[in-house]
Amino acid sequence: MTLALLGTGLLGRAIAERLQSVGHSVTVYNRTTSKALPLQACGITVVTRPEQAIAQTDCVVLMLADAAAIRAVLLTPASLAVLRGKTVIQMGTIAQEESLALQAEIERVGGSYCEAPVLGSLAEAQTGTLFVMVGGTEGQFVQWNPLFRSLSREPRLIGSVGKAASLKLALNQLIAAEISAFALSLGLVQRAGVPVDTFMAILRESALFAPAFEKKLPRLLTRDYQHPNFSTRHLLKDVELFLKEASGYELTTSSLEGIRPVLERTIAQGLGEADYSAIFEVVNPTP
Questions:
Q1: How many CB atoms lie within 10 A of CB 150?
Q2: Architecture of the domain made up of 166-283
Q3: What is residue 98's predicted lDDT score, i.e. its pLDDT?
Q4: Is the pTM of this model over 0.90?
């Protein structure tokens, strides 16, 4: 399968490498070309304009940071001119209304659109064990299943366009909730002089345990947030998208609204590109 992938950030780069390694032919575009150039070493073609990538394939995978980036890259006159007959698969995290608007724009110029946001990080992308959640038609799910199965053991058709986007936001809200709760509990344990090993031993055996706690513990103990799988900046973006969408359903979001300023303060400390566990610096500052 010949594919174009637009957006080679942390996860986009890993997905491009995975697709190429399992036999697909991949062409990539990134707004900062220099960040994509290392992909040439594994046989991936790097181009300097998005329309060059789009023109070479029937399928365009979007791994761009947000809806604004998608519009800047995909909805330009040059890109729209070559989208007729192409399928665009949006794999990043955007809001339901943004996904539906994107679908309308692409279909207006004769293209096809579905969404397939993914849950997981670099390790899962490299091993093809991401969760792929598809919003589209049954026909699109069947047509592009070889692509989805290159990245996931069990891709799921969630429903029409917009449904998978909302599900992804619901899952990412849990990322924010879990790390903030764990950071706060760990901070209290440390300041109260309770052994962290004792805290973790009880936590692991309880119904309260989440695997993310184990995964992030070394980062929090060493305060090392380099080489992120998911950045603080992107988590804040997803929290804001969730809050906006949830407000339309009259949900009470005060718990998440309390996390937003913690993320904002973390970014203000220069940790926007660091791993999102860097919120520990705000929750439990170094004494």
A1: 21
A2: Orthogonal Bundle (1.10)
A3: 98
A4: yes
